[in-house]
Amino acid sequence: MSVLLTYGYSVYLVYFSFEQILSNFVPVDHYVFLAEGTKASSAASKVVTSANTKPSKAAKSSSQKNDGSQVAASEKKGGDRAPEKDRKKDAPHPRMQYDDKSRVEKAKKRAVVKQTEARNRVELFRHLPQYEHGTQLPDLETKFFELDPMHPAVYKVGLQYLSGDIRGGNARCIAMFQAFKEAIKDYSTPPEKTLIRDLTARISSYVSFLIECRPLSISMGNAIKFLKNRIAKLPLALSESEAKSTLMLDIDRFINEKIILSEKVIVKHAVTKIRDGDVLLTYGASSVVEMILLHAHELGKHFHVVVVDSRPKLEGQLLLRRLVRKGLSCTYTHVNAVSCIMQDVTRVFLGASSVLSNGTVYSRVGTACVAMVAHAFHVPVLVCCEAYKFHERVQLDSICFNELGNPDAISKVQGRKEINYLDGLVNQENLQLLNLIYDATPSDYVSMIITDYGMIPPTSVPVIVREYRRDHLWS
């Protein structure tokens, strides 16, 4: 008789006869567990043969001891658990869950920016950080001379993140890398320490400070991973000045090749999709989409642009102003009217904060709404995104990972006090304000993704992720 057993990720066969069960009961852990493969088949034949020949009790006990010792040795060596350990190493580091009170209290003790948690938080998003706005910036400004290990350039970028002066994935990533470049330039290895380990720890402390000012975007996480990888692979024979020069060159090369040149390549590809007489719709204010529209206008193509915007940031107004100044024909509307104007649109160009491995587009909240309406009207949706923003993560919703903005931004309208009906009600216990920053657009609503590697369908995103990892800048 044979029984199929599973242990962890492995499958095993247990061979025994009914005569053995009836004559002499043997514990389960003393049976012979055989793995798949050629060795398993040969060992199985030996066990069946020995069972048919009815060996003596002494032979049985010795064989059972040997089998038990083999199983114990295999458990000690952890041969079956090695693949699981490898998977744990490859798995991304777990993100901070802000509904875990013990972990939150520990994080508060290490925090540089003292922040007060929002009282009326939406229960579904309690795992995301949300603080009272308006108190962090003055408190951080008073602690400038108390932050000894913090480099002034990193401190300045953190203040700009906190105040909202720097927006956009590319702008935030470039500002962060330039601050790191200044920090590396002024860095000196402490005595009795190595540059690789100490500088990595220093960069990690800078990253923690920036996260306290504002959560990192996915593209910034990829850039930080690249920098730490370059630090870890520095040759030990290099002097400190040579190592610092190498790292600063790597940072400049990353900014030039992965951001600036990538945008130019995307523009070159995307312009081929614009024809005379097109009505192009865009949402929010994407720097890459703006470059595409301006370059197509410079080439002499005649088209009309529809800028769709939404509160509270109203970033589309800035894009609209720049396009009108360049002489482009534009229409401005809000996202609540997108279904009315979509019937006249021929193509939709959208930016992205990131593109995930399953083809999901992670972008400014409202992007999914625009893409779904375009799909309903059979309008092609073209997403423009640099390859360094691609990530191997798979995300099916906007709940597990997101960023919460200032709730006061949606409860008040600047310059319109007569319609601020929520004044005095924001702190009510039965009122919860939710201001999401990003949303996830399923790949079914995306026609094409334009990257610096070319124009691809959403199903080919894993290929880009793999090729990007093989890039010499990454590996």
From TrEMBL:
It comes from the Eukaryota. Keywords: Cytoplasm, Initiation factor, Protein biosynthesis. Residues 44-63 have a biased composition (Low complexity). The keyword Protein biosynthesis applies. It is found in: Cytoplasm, Cytosol. GO terms for molecular function: translation initiation factor activity. The keyword Protein biosynthesis applies. Residues 44-112 are annotated as: Disordered. GO terms for cellular component: cytosol. Residues 74-105 have a biased composition (Basic and acidic residues). Its main location: cytoplasm. Belongs to the eIF-2B alpha/beta/delta subunits family. PANTHER family: TRANSLATION INITIATION FACTOR EIF-2B (PTHR10233), TRANSLATION INITIATION FACTOR EIF-2B SUBUNIT DELTA (PTHR10233:SF14). Component of the translation initiation factor 2B (eIF2B) complex which is a heterodecamer of two sets of five different subunits: alpha, beta, gamma, delta and epsilon. Subunits alpha, beta and delta comprise a regulatory subcomplex and subunits epsilon and gamma comprise a catalytic subcomplex. Within the complex, the hexameric regulatory complex resides at the center, with the two heterodimeric catalytic subcomplexes bound on opposite sides. This is Translation initiation factor eIF2B subunit delta. It comes from Gossypium raimondii.
